[in-house]
Amino acid sequence: MAVAVDHGHGFKPFTRHPRCRLLSFTQLDYKMLDFSRDQSLDLSNIHKSFSTPCLSNSSSARDDLHDTNSKIEIIIGHAAPRVRAMVVEVAIAMASGVKPEPASSGLGGAYFLRAQNGDTIAVAKPIDEEPLAFNNPKGLGGRLLGQPGMKCSIRIGETGLRESAAYVLDHNGFAGVPPTALVKFSHINFNINNPASDSASIYKIASLQRYVKHDSDAGDLGPSSFSVTCVHHIGILDVRLMNLDRHAGNILVRNGQERPSELVPIDHGFCLPEALDDPYFEWLNWPQASIPFCEAELDYITRLDPYKDAETLRSEVPSIGESPIRVLVLCTTFLKQAAAHGLCLAEIGEMMTRDFNGRDENWSTLENLCINAKARLKKPLIDDKIISTLKCDDHKQPEQEQVGEKDGDKMFRFDDKHKGFLDQASHIHETPAKDNHPSMVVKFANPPEMPLNKIQDTFLDNNIIDDSPSTTGGNLMRSVSCSVPNYNRDGQCIYIGEMEDEEWQTFLGIFQKLLPEAFEERKSMDLPKHRLGLSCQF
Ligand SMILES: Nc1ncnc2c1ncn2[C@@H]1O[C@H](COP(=O)(O)OP(=O)(O)OP(=O)(O)O)[C@@H](O)[C@H]1O
């Protein structure tokens, strides 16, 4: 068998729904491993091929139609350590005729790739088999790539990117994310729900992660056998990446000869959302999270450079886009300052998590800080997606916060002096809803600055726009009614990706100035301490 590394651009660009951003895989430096089933394996040849890259002849989708040889191509992760070795092993296994084995667990399509001797090498998760995606094999399919997925802030088809990003950002294996890449498989039998209509079935894009031998996952055990270090390291990663999905099943447990067990974090598809969202941290209530960071951990956190990490993502995972990168910068900044103020992991995690009391979900402390920081920017914040119905009026009533009630909607004055406005916004959900959508009215002190088109653009994809002029008290009132789709319970996320660069920098500066007071307030609460009372051994 000849295994060759290809620096060419072997496949046609991967596109998705026309209204959605293109995944710019054409910009990426593809490296391809070709292998053929009818030739014998020659490992010495593999090494030679790596050191002497050569071009593949199979450079178009048309060629692929006539080429039945299996291929695997690294799209993201070719510079990451230990990725190539994993891909070579998978390539050899596939060349020997080994078939991917579907995993029964998980909501998405996942496949174990085994070597000829039966050892599992890696886990592949095709992006079109994610939960809700059209080729999902577990009855959860039907949607196009690029639409909001299980989490409103992460699009269908983009979890694989994030799995790779988590590995790239886990510097020196601090949290122990297994080697992960985004790859393209061709001529491999993954699931297709409607073969007749699927013309692109000759290849699939998938995340590929090194399989980790394990004894159980964290859901099978209580946390008392887990090492403080493992919990802290995984928690630090989750905070940086705003992981929305750190449930116990996503932490594998390896029992050593002695306690404590080693923890391995997997499944990072719901990290790095496009907007601030509600993270889920299983470790939040584990006693280890309430133990202060040790010197080495504090040193690691101090040395984290959010801007360098942002550059790393831009160069190594370019298709991820700027919004998730901003979430990374914001969360890393938050972590660094929180740790410097002496907060423990549990306190930091709690500040990032929304408060759900069974009926209402309130913004997290982190989200409230961002709302306040945005309110202090000069520009009116009308494109925040916290607003589902907007009305504007140049009639100023500066002394009043709530300026009235109309058709069941509360009316609030809004200008840049009125920083309390966005605190009020947390009460939006309690206002009477129209057509089952939360509703509010905002009065703008400065109508000319209101980019009405921008509002319409923001909501156009999924909403009904009603732009009807009316008059109130002699003042022109423009009305824009939009229904925010029900992504989550409240249909709301705080977006930070829409700001211009300069505005973003100003926002970050304001955000950082707000942090010390918030940390002091958090430290004055003693919530996490009671957890230390639980009986556990470390
Ligand atoms: N790197 C790995 N090493 C060992 N097992 C793994 C690895 N990655 C995933 N698995 C296992 O593969 C199965 C499916 O993986 P995973 O849970 O990540 O899929 P998913 O569809 O994204 O799941 P979920 O519904 O929890 O989001 C699980 O049993 C998981 O434990």
Automatic annotation (TrEMBL):
It is an enzyme of class 2 (transferase). Keywords: ATP-binding, Kinase, Nucleotide-binding, Transferase. GO terms for molecular function: 1-phosphatidylinositol 4-kinase activity; ATP binding. Residues 97-385 form the PI3K/PI4K catalytic domain. It comes from the Eukaryota. PROSITE patterns: PI3_4_KINASE_3. Its EC number is 2.7.1.67. Belongs to the PI3/PI4-kinase family. Type II PI4K subfamily. This is 1-phosphatidylinositol 4-kinase.
